[in-house]
């Protein structure tokens, strides 16, 4: 207790690591079980508390970063004693006034989420308190290093084998996406791959609600990145890998879940309205999965897919140029050709062709592509075929 921080500081990390190894080693546990149980346990506990007391009283003199580096390196241990020791130390530092882990969080967030999966309730409780506190601090600051944090969260959010850490990662993901819009755009395809399946696969209502929140927030970020004459976008739309995003949505349209497919179709509608010039560069990727969705047994999926086809068949923004109108009409013609030449197309057209054409005529309307254009385009394609 008489030791001052200025003498302890150069050796602080070494001593802390020594205590961790001592209190968690197998032979120390055996000593506790055989003899000296009370003395050894009390001595290690006293030394541990002593370090924490010194640190809490002299937080402005202890060098935090070397300790963070040490903790981040040790956090992948499996031994529960070591895990509890590490998270208790992070908790002790976190409660010291004036100490902020926000800049160092990406270093040990992955390890902390791994430890949060530990079956011991005491370890889970400390991890939950830390993660909740760190998230509140980030939200209060209004910013997040998404470049480093989002890959960690996405890795755990996609790990369906570890429910607890996955739920924590999803909760974090919903909270931090709006704090770094550019990083959210960069990682949009991976976020879609995580969020949309969770809308239908999770058996926990709270997890589904988080997935809904993630999906809605990411869609808002992408929509707000579209350039308009009224305001500057919140983030640069060029940060969005549009091709990878379309591929992620196309993949989600092949799953069995109606909820997931409806969410993917709503994404396509939003992309067409917000960034039509980019979407028309990828209609060949979208057309096959839209066509499959049009002939789905589910009327909800079929109608929304037809609405997508109708919207893509017309330029969504006012006063389109001749070139823009040509792009939209070409997309519609490509869809009709694909419909006529698809596998088992004759049977499908006989069973649902009238419904498809009538619904398309209703969705399109005279302001975009008239019903007569629908039928004349089909007639030309049939004649050419």
Textual characterization of the structure:
This protein is mainly α and 385 residues long. Helix content is 74%, strand content 0%. The model is unreliable at 1-5 and 22-38 (pLDDT under 50).
Mean of pLDDT:
79
- The percent range for strand residues is under 5%
Helix percentage: over 70%
Largest sheet: none
String of helices and strands: HHHHHHHHHHHHHHHHHHHHH
CA gyration radius, whole angstroms? 28 Å
Note poorly predicted spans.
1-5, 22-38
The N- to C-terminal Cα distance equals: 91 Å
The rough form would be described as elongated
Features of this protein?
385 residues, 74% helix, 0% strand, mainly alpha
Summarize the structure.
The chain is mostly helical and 385 residues long. The chain is 74% helix and 0% strand.
What topology does this entry show?
Blueprint: H1 5-8, H2 12-24, H3 26-34, H4 37-57, H5 64-74, H6 80-94, H7 105-115, H8 121-141, H9 146-157, H10 163-176, H11 181-186, H12 188-201, H13 205-224, H14 242-252, H15 258-274, H16 276-279, H17 283-294, H18 299-312, H19 322-341, H20 345-364, H21 371-384
Helix pairs in contact: 2-4, 2-6, 3-4, 6-8, 7-8, 7-9, 8-10, 9-10, 10-13, 12-13, 12-14, 12-15, 13-15, 14-15, 14-17, 15-18, 17-18, 17-19, 18-20, 19-21, 20-21
């Amino acid at each position: 207790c008489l030791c001052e921080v200025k003498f302890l500081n150069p050796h602080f990390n070494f001593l802390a690591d020594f205590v961790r190894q001592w209190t968690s080693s197998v032979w120390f546990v055996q000593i506790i079980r055989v003899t000296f149980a009370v003395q050894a346990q009390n001595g290690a506990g006293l030394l541990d508390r002593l370090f924490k007391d010194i640190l809490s009283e002299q937080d402005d003199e202890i060098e935090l970063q070397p300790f963070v580096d040490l903790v981040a390196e040790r956090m992948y241990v499996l031994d529960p004693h070591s895990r509890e020791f590490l998270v208790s130390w992070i908790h002790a530092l976190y409660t010291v006034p004036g100490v902020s882990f926000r800049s160092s969080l990406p270093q040990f967030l992955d390890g902390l989420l791994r430890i949060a999966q530990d079956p011991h309730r005491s370890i889970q409780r400390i991890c939950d308190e830390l993660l909740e506190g760190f998230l509140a601090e980030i939200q209060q600051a209004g910013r997040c290093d998404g470049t480093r944090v989002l890959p960690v969260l996405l890795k755990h959010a996609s790990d369906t084998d570890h429910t607890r850490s996955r739920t924590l990662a999803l909760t974090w993901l919903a909270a931090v996406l709006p704090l770094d819009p550019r990083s959210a755009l960069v990682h949009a395809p991976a976020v879609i791959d995580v969020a949309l399946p969770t809308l239908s696969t999770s058996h926990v209502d709270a997890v589904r609600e988080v997935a809904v929140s993630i999906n809605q927030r990411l869609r808002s970020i992408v929509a707000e990145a579209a350039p308009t004459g009224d305001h500057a976008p919140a983030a640069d739309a060029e940060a969005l890998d549009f091709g990878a995003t379309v591929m992620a949505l196309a993949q989600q349209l092949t799953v069995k879940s109606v909820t997931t497919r409806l969410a993917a179709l709503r994404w396509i509608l939003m992309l067409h309205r917000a960034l039509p010039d980019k979407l028309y560069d990828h209609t060949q990727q979208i057309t096959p999965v839209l066509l499959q969705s049009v002939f789905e047994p589910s009327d909800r999926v079929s109608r929304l897919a037809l609405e997508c086809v109708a919207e893509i068949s017309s330029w969504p923004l006012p006063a389109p140029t001749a070139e823009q109108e040509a792009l939209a009409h070409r997309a519609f013609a490509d869809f009709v050709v694909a419909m006529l030449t698809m596998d088992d197309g004759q049977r499908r057209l006989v069973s649902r062709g009238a419904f498809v054409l009538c619904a398309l005529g209703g969705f399109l309307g005279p302001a975009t592509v008239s019903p007569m254009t629908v039928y004349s385009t089909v007639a030309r394609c049939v004649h050419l075929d």
